Amino acid sequence: MKRPFLLILICLVLSPVAAEAQKKRPSSKKSRTTATKTEPSLEVRGGAERVAEQIKVLSKFLYLLGGVARSIEAADAAAQRGDASQSVISQTQQSKSTVRNSIRSLREQLDQLELDFRLKPELQRYYTSLAGSAASAAQAEDEAANNQFDRAGRTLLTVVNRLADVLLEMR
Question: In terms of Cα–Cα distance, which of 98, 84, 93, 107 is closest to 156?
Fold first, then answer.
């Protein structure tokens, strides 16, 4: 009788050890190597901010140009018919001059942006995508000088598209 009792006692004592041995132990955490995203340098970030600012300025200008171009066209048509007063003609000439000066200013800003990208080593790789923006703005300037304000706006839209592409490349 001692033997079965002793056998049962040994089984009871050893069963928690066996159960413990069967439990799943948490595996040691393996460190995963993740690709670290490199942050752009301050120079690249500053260049991207300047490109974004140019996009904002051009977009706002194009929004305003749409209405101004329509009113200029309507005033010119009225002047050709002889229906426009001298004050309307004067106001139209002033509006044309303002639009031309604004486009010239935009072209100068784009010239400076291209120059900065060409001269700064960290921005040079983006210069090839940016190059031609100022030339397109100069084309818009010529179109505005020929009273083709709608066409000038369309040309400036190509500049906005180019700047957006540069900004995407820089991120």
Answer: 107
